[in-house]
Design a protein that fits this description.
With about 120 residues, the protein is mainly alpha-helical. It has a domain of about 55 residues. Helix content is about 25%, strand content about 5%. The protein contains three helices and three strands. The chain has a three-stranded antiparallel sheet. A hairpin with a 6-residue loop joins β1 and β2. The N and C termini lie far apart (about 65 Å). The relative contact order is 0.17.
Length: about 120
C-alpha cells in the first residue's frame, strides 16, 4: 500500500465550483420555451391545413393527403398515383375555402400563450 500511486476517477472538475450557464444558453432556452414551433396538440390544426395559415395548403383529390405547395403535390402524385395524369386545376386549395382568423397564433411567432 505504501508507495503505490492512487488512480483518480476522472478529470479534476475545478474545485467544486458550480457550473454557470451562459447568457446565450439561457436565451436559447427562453426562445425554445416561448416560440410556437407548430408541434404537439397546439399545432395539430395548423399542420392539418383546416384553418388559414396552416402548413398544408393543398389536398390531393384522390387520397386526401395534404401538401404545402403545388410542387410537393406533384411529387406526391407522381409517386402515389402514377397511372393517373397530374392536373393542377383538380388539386384542392384548402386556404381558398376558409376565412382567415386574425387572432390565431402562427408558427414561429414569439411569445407564450401562458403569461
Amino acid at each position: 500500500m505504501l508507495g503505490e500511486k492512487r488512480e483518480r476517477n476522472g478529470p479534476m472538475t475545478g474545485k467544486a465550483k458550480p457550473k454557470k450557464h451562459t447568457a446565450k444558453e439561457i436565451a436559447a432556452k427562453v426562445d425554445a420555451a416561448t416560440t410556437n414551433r407548430g408541434g404537439g396538440k397546439a399545432g395539430l390544426k395548423d399542420r392539418s391545413g383546416l384553418e388559414k395559415g396552416g402548413h398544408a395548403k393543398y389536398e390531393c383529390p384522390h387520397c386526401k393527403v395534404t401538401a404545402p405547395d403545388v410542387k410537393s403535390m406533384q411529387i406526391h402524385h407522381d409517386a402515389r398515383h402514377p397511372k393517373i395524369p397530374f392536373e393542377e386545376d383538380k388539386v384542392v386549395n384548402l386556404h381558398a375555402t376558409h376565412v382567415p382568423e386574425s387572432s390565431k397564433p402562427r408558427p414561429g411567432v414569439r411569445g407564450s400563450l401562458k403569461k
